[in-house]
Amino acid sequence: MKSRTAPRRHLAALASLPLITQLAGLGCGDTLIDVLMPAGAGGGAGGPEAGDGSAGCAAPLAACASACVDLSRSNAHCGACGVACSGGAFCSEGGCVCRDGDTMCNGECTSLDADPQNCGDCAVRCERGQSCRRGACEDGCPPPRVRCHGECVDPASIDEDCDCGDLCDEGEACDDRECDCVPPEVSCGESCVDLRSDDEHCGDCDVRCRDHTSCVDGMCR
Predict the structure, then answer these.
(1) How many domains, the chain?
(2) Which of 75-79, 138-142, 210-214 shows the lowest mean pLDDT across its residues?
(3) Which residues form the signal peptide (predicted)?
(4) 147 - beta bridge partners?
């Protein structure tokens, strides 16, 4: 009787040929796992950390640093890894753009209708004391700003300097940066009064006329 062991040994040898072929292709530093693992399946070099824009991320996302991002709308990675949008711009279809109504001037989104440094077009500057209105330089300040020594400023920042805007009360005028009463009125307390006709301050501050009398030419009569 012939033995059946030999054919089985031949079959086992044939089955091991692909593995032997793969092992023969191992280079220095390669392992069996490296040879058998599909590309991009591992977390080593060439994985998501590589930042090559594809490895380890499902389309249409791309790998940037350790994250999968959409290069068409990521403000930190707009169009390519590491390209960040700034100056008020945002990422749209892989490019940094300004919101409707604004224009990119020197890396900043601004309104050409109101920016005195870019009035009507980029780098078109209004003169000192002018403001930009509807894309044109005009004299005067846009509310609520007021003119202060030739410049348009916020009223809250100018303290008691009455030269800056209309800060004096009714009946007062600005004199040497201070609000004073307009002659012939004088200051009595916190009010401007005419000592010639004011019944509460007749001829002088706090001189009150008695009942049934009135102040005429600075005297109670």
Answers:
(1) 2
(2) 138-142
(3) 1-24
(4) 152
